[in-house]
Amino acid sequence: MMQPTPTAPTTPGGPTAGGAPTASTPATGLAASVSAQARRTPDAVAVLDGARRIDYAGLEAASAAVADTLRRHGVLAGQSVAICLPRSWQLVCAMLGVRRVGAVVVPLDA
Q: Which residue stretches of the chain have pLDDT < 50?
């Protein structure tokens, strides 16, 4: 389960000019790159996890759902979000969703 942990803003582009993070900070870096790839090649395989194949469209949809849930729970850009999942396609989607919000991923061993 993901639990937001309030911290000082630490990600570039996350905080506003006044230092306070915002809920609508656009995805940058890896999250933006994956979104762009999903627009170019939505049917291409993005994640292989055993027999499970996730295409870029599916990865984009799953990470967007995570990001939306985090925003509804008040997670802001620059905050830390701990994730405790085994190494899997779900972990990839969760981590990408956190980055889409502009938050910091804190992976915990599952």
A: 1-24
Residue with tokens 């809920």: 23
CA distance 98 to 43: 23
Q: What six digits make up the tokens of 56?
A: 């870029």
Q: How crowded is residue 36: how many other Cβ atoms within 10 Å of its Cβ?
A: 13
- Please state the φ and ψ torsions of residue 31, each to the nearest 5 degrees: -60, -45
pTM of the model as a whole: 0.74
Q: Where are the domains of the chain?
A: 26-108
- Give the integer Cα–Cα distance in Å for 78 and 56: 26
Task: Write down the pLDDT at residue 17.
Answer: 37
Helix (H, G, I), strand (E, B) or coil at 16: coil
Helix or strand holding residue 38 (H, E): helix 30-40
* Fold entry, domain 26-108: Rossmann fold (3.40.50)
Give exposure, 3-34, as e/b (b: 16+ Cβ within 10 Å). ebeeeebebeebbeeeeebeeebebbeebeeb
Closest-CA residue to 52 (of 93, 84, 82)? 93
